[in-house]
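hiii so um. not sure if this is the right channel but i have a protein structure encoded as tokens and i wanna go backwards to a sequence. like what aa goes where. can anyone help
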């Protein structure tokens, strides 16, 4: 039967494994297969399991679009999946898939909403996903919710403390996957690297032990065959490297991740990698200009070239973010480009760029990105 629970579970497992093994196109194909199992409306062939089939189809398609950096259709499919979800109808899948479909869809929807520029709604999704998994008494569902929340709040939302709390919650949940452990170790290493700084987002020296811990976690994930969160994990590594002054190491992490994105089509964080590359290039340029007695025309030329290349990276990040309608990444790239223009005396251009995207937001004003944007706009007035 087309609504046989084991057949649905097998296709769902295939979609999940394809996505987690960095094959979003295959995930989308499986989602379409599930959708094709449902007779067209009005055919008179509807069966009781069609609602569950539709739910899983929209979940798989939403998962695929999210991974491919298309948050708008991802939002639409995941929202439709949740509208079709009832805990009772999905109990036959219990134990056959990694987590409850409703929990997975809700957690993924949170990641998508943060990309789209709705941090408050995203955080509510993460809370609801965790609570739902706990109510179902399914440790695998709770772990999945915490994993997606840890990844999104840290890599997309730049909320390292919240990301670490979600990561730490993974540890007591029994046998944790290698991917989960890598993220828990990365965020723990990030926290160790920051130490007890009053402003933990400031560019301050970080501990070598924390940096080593972050790098080791990434190596473990790579040895295991990467995984769906590989690019975002490399992004966090690059952030830590930048704080530690390990610019070349950070650029290598960016190069590895961008090559992986090109190979797999996992483009969810693509815009932010261009932003991070620009940040690292500006750090190189700053280092070349800080030791006055060693500066030479050649050094100054290289510093100018680094700034030009960084500007091109920020422009590329803006372009990708706008194509994807990923407002959070657009704001972040706009802040970096506006600050560079400010240093170059192009304050009117900087203010026009930043005020346009900042004015779009209606929530999340306590997040790092919006706080930074507001402060820069006040400087530019």
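sure thing!! here u go:
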């Amino acid at each position: 039967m087309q609504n046989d629970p084991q057949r649905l579970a097998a296709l769902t497992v295939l979609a999940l494994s394809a996505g987690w093994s960095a094959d979003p196109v295959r995930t989308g194909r499986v989602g379409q297969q599930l959708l094709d199992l449902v007779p067209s409306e009005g055919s008179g062939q509807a069966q009781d399991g069609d609602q569950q089939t539709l739910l899983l189809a929209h979940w798989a398609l939403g998962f695929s679009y999210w991974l491919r950096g298309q948050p708008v259709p991802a939002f639409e499919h995941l929202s439709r999946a949740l509208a079709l979800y009832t805990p009772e109808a999905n109990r036959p899948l219990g134990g056959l898939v990694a987590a409850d479909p409703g929990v997975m869809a809700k957690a993924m929807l949170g990641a998508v909403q943060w990309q789209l520029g709705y941090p408050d709604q995203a955080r509510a999704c993460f809370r609801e996903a965790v609570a739902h998994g706990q109510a179902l008494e399914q440790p695998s569902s709770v772990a999945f919710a915490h994993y997606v929340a840890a990844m999104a709040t840290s890599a997309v939302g730049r909320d390292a403390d919240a990301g670490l709390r979600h990561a730490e919650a993974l540890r007591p949940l029994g046998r944790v996957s290698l991917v989960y452990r890598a993220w828990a170790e990365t965020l723990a290493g990030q926290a160790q690297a920051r130490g007890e700084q009053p402003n933990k987002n400031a560019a301050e020296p970080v501990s070598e032990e924390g940096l080593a811990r972050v790098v080791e976690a990434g190596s473990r994930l790579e040895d295991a065959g990467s995984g769906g969160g590989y690019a975002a994990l490399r992004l966090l590594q690059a952030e830590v490297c930048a704080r530690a002054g390990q610019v070349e190491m950070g650029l290598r992490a960016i190069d590895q991740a961008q090559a992986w994105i090109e190979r797999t089509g996992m483009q969810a964080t693509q815009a932010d990698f261009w932003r991070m590359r620009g940040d690292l290039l500006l750090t190189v340029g700053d280092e070349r200009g800080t030791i006055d007695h060693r500066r030479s025309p050649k050094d100054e030329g290289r510093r100018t070239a680094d700034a030009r290349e960084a500007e091109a990276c920020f422009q590329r990040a803006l372009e990708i973010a706008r194509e994807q309608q990923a407002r959070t990444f657009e704001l972040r790239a706009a802040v970096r480009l506006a600050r560079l223009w400010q240093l170059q005396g192009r304050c009117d251009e900087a203010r026009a760029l930043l005020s346009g995207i900042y004015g779009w937001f209606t929530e999340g004003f306590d997040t790092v990105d919006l706080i930074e944007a507001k402060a820069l706009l006040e400087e530019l007035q």
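oh and The chain has 17 helices and no strands.
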